[in-house]
Design brief:
This protein is an alpha/beta fold. It contains six helices and nine strands; from the N terminus they run E-H-E-H-E-H-E-H-E-H-E-E-H-E-E. The structure holds glycinamide ribonucleotide (GAR). The site of glycinamide ribonucleotide has 17 residues, from helix 1, strand 5 and helix 6.
């Protein structure tokens, strides 16, 4: 018997190691999700190359192709919807999605962030954690809402900051854990192993 696997669209802006982890996980036939398309906000990203190498359809929705942010938001939602995702994963997507996108995929968009939310939101989580001098940081997977990295937290891993860390070494160490956390969390989400109680996401 073949069990239908959940359809995941991944949105990216960068190198795509988190995307690659999901693609690699999908190679196992008992993994409950598979990546059906990859979208980016710019051409020529490593992540889009990774998708193409895996024969996964790609699309680009670059904000500068549109008159305003609202039109871009609708175009991104339309392009994503073509692939009928059960779950949308922002994996290094360095933009806030807008209201049209969130309305279309309500509660089914997650993001992965390289810090322990609510600390250090935004695009420089590891740099900001280092600058603050924290001894522990980590990564967070959360359900996307309209704020900047403010949505309900699904999963987190804490990672020590070492005295000789720089931004790159810290971010790379975070990403090793982040990829594993993302693969497990996507599997758990698409198999309904979480439910939401207000802001809290709890195990079923
Ligand atoms: C990841 O660490 C992800 O958490 C971060 O970008 C990196 C992408 O790496 N995202 C953010 O900072 C969003 N606020 P990758 O392209 O190798 O997957």
């Amino acid at each position: 018997m073949t069990v239908a696997r959940s359809r995941v669209v991944v949105l990216v802006s960068g190198g795509g190691t988190n995307l690659q982890a999901l693609i690699d996980a999908s190679d196992a036939h008992d993994y409950p999700a598979h990546v059906v398309a990859v979208g980016a906000d710019r051409p020529d990203t490593g992540a889009i190359e990774r998708a193409a190498a895996a024969d996964i359809p790609t699309f680009i929705a670059a904000p500068n192709q549109y008159n305003d942010r609202a039109s871009w938001d609708v175009a991104l939602a339309d392009a994503t919807a073509i692939y009928r995702p059960d779950l949308v994963v922002l994996a290094g997507f360095m933009r806030l999605v807008g209201p049209a996108f969130l309305e279309r995929f309500s509660g089914r968009v997650i993001n992965t962030h390289p810090a322990l939310s609510p600390a250090f939101p935004g695009t420089h989580g590891p740099r900001d954690a280092l600058a603050y001098g924290v001894k522990v940081t980590g990564c967070t997977i959360f359900i996307v809402d309209s704020g900047l990295d403010t949505g309900p937290i699904v999963a987190q891993v804490a990672i020590p900051v070492l005295d000789d860390d720089d931004e790159l070494s810290l971010h790379e160490r975070i990403k090793e854990h982040e990829r594993e956390l993302l693969v497990h969390t996507v599997a758990d989400l698409v198999t309904d192993q979480y439910r939401t109680e207000g802001r809290k996401v709890v195990r079923t």
